[in-house]
Every structure is written in structure tokens, then in C-alpha cells.
Amino acid sequence: MTEDQTPFITNDAVVLGLLMLILAFVFHTSSKQHGFWKKFYGIVPSVLLCYFIPSIFNSLGIISGEQSQLYSMASRYLLPASLVLLTLSIDIKAILKLGPKALIMFISGTVGIMLGGPIAILLLSGVMPEIFNGAGPDEVWRGMATIAGSWIGGGANQAAMLEVFGASPSLFSTMIAVDVIVANIWMAVLLFFTGRAAKVDKAFKADASAIDELQDKVEQYRAGIMRIPNMADTMKILGIGFGITGLSHFLADYIAPWIGENYPALEKYSLTSGFFWIVVIATTGGLLLSFTKYKQLEGAGASRLGSAMLYVLVATIGTMMDVTAIFEQPQFFLIGLTWMLVHVSIMLLVAWLIKAPFFYVAVGSQANVGGAASAPIVASAFNPSLAPVGVLLAVLGYAVGTYGAYICGLLMQYVSN
Asked: What is the pTM of this model?
């Protein structure tokens, strides 16, 4: 639905209730051990439905993710708290043992996006030259540069590319739709294949033993400290999660403007973005607590509560996707899909060459395309204990986003002329 249309449900409290009912339905049916639902979820991952069903409600005009404040709430409040609770029991040494392949796949994803834009222009300009007839601020490559900023870094990097290359407001609005739809389609594909990672690893002859070892170690640790939580445990967990979230916002409100005022050149590293600092401080808080006695709160369900918050974020991300928008300006979505296909092809080629597990492909890609809001979602779809890997790579994406997007923009300008 378009921005000026009024959805059937406008009250965010009602929308939140609907989303929670959807999540409850998905988890209730996915817990079935026999019959239809057992077979169904053997094909379709539960997390994909948590994301896809809300997108249907949004596409039908029943709710509107654009007009709702729920995504902003979930990404600013629930995501940082989730990051704290998911990293509370992290084993840094075990993550380091995962080796360099995770970093190589992340870099491959960045390179795939940098090359994908120019290649998409070269491929499609010969087939549909009319798409690229815009002049001045309406030149398509200028709008595509903002997508590059989003897909390598995030919202702050996207805004930086808008300022640098000067896309027109109407073109930028279209490119935002391409960005959101194509990125979300790719995330849906990744979530679908999380349940088939073993088959992909076998085809690539990849060794996933280090990932399995990390999962086993975390699960054994949880089993050893598991207990029935009492009210004090639950309130301590929530207090730590939201307390550090509050601290993250407090510090970000000072740090980001101070850097912007005194060191404006650091904007290219996203260091003037408040959201960047919220994610970094929350993640750091969880990492620091993993070295203290509070790590024992994992036994009372810290990561389970963190995962619940993350699934609320998944549902709100789903409300941002309107599948009908693809049919309004299909030529621009064809550019985005071609671009994404190049990114995916390069990642799969590199994964095959270095025999990297599919987990590294999925998280390395999503750390670029989705950033801190969705990289841990894809990582935790493999196993909740792996969510911190997605967070750490996503933070790296913020750092390289503006450089990569700027180079991509220059390449697209060159091939367009």
C-alpha cells in the first residue's frame, strides 16, 4: 500500500496485539511433533512465517508498517535489549576459533554489492535503455548509490550517499522501496535455506565442525546451569537488558552529536549515527557481562527472552514489506534483483572456493544487506547461540559502508556515461 493510504488498523496497540497473536500461532504450530504441522515446518522455517505473515497483512492494507511506530520501537528498544541478553553467555574464545572464513565471506558480500550495481547497469542498459534516460538528480545511478549505502552499511550510510550524489526526492523514494523489498526477499530466501544448510555444506564440501562445536559448547553450558526462573530472575534479566539499552541511548545521545560537531569527517564511518552507538554500546555491555557472574542468568532464560524480543522485531520488519509494490515499477525492481543476484553469485563462488559453510554465506550477506537489525535474526535462525556472530559482522558493515558505497557510486556513474 502507498504512504497516503489509510490502513484498516491504525492503532499500534491493536497492530502489536495482532503481531503477537501471529507469533504465538507460529510457535504453537511449530512445536507440534506429529501430523501436518510437523511436515509443514520441515519445509518452511518458522522464522520465515513470523516475517512473511505480517507482510501479507501490510500488502493487503490491513496494517501499515510505514505509518506504524512499532518498527522504530522494536529496533530502538527491543533490539538493543535482545543483543545484551543474547551476548550475555557468549564464549569469545569459541567464536574466535571459527577462523577467518566468516570475515572472508563478509568481505565477499561487500565486494559483491560494490560490483553488482555497475554490472546490473551494464546488463540492463542494453535491454531497457529507457530506464537510464534520467538527467541530473534523476539519473538512476544516483539513486542506486543510496541503495549501496544501505546494503553495505545501513541507514546512516544511505543518508550519506544521498547527500554525496544528490538523487532527487522522487528517485530516492523509489529506491527506498527497491531497497526494502529486494533486501527482504533475499532475507526470506536465507531464512528458507537455514533448514537446508547441511545439504548446501555437503555440496560445497564445507566443514561446519567449528560452528557445531560452538553450538554444542553453548548448549552444554546452558544445560549445566538451567533452572526454573523465579520472579527475581526474570526481573534481573529484564533489568539488565533494558538498563543497558537505556544506558546505550543515554550515551549515544551525547557521543553521536559530539563527534558530529567536533569531528564531522568521521561521518563516513557512521560514527555520527546514534543507532550505530546504541548497537555498539549494547553489544559491548553484553560482552562485558559475559565475564561476570551475571552470565549465570542464562540458566534462567536470558537468551530465551532475548530471542522473544528478536522475534517481535522480525514481525515488525515484516510489516515494512509490501509485495504489491514490485508490480508498480517492475523495471526498478529488476535492477535491484539483478544487483542482488550478482552479490549472491559472488558469495556462493567464494564459498565454494574456500569451502565455507552456508552459515558464513548467510550471515556475511545479511551483515551487509540487513545490518544489525537482521544479521542476528538470520544467525539465530541457525542457532540462538550464533546471534553474536551476526552482530559483530554487522558492526563491521557500518564501518566500511560509506567507503564501499562511495566507490560503488563512482563505478555506477562511470558505466552510465
From this structure: 0.70
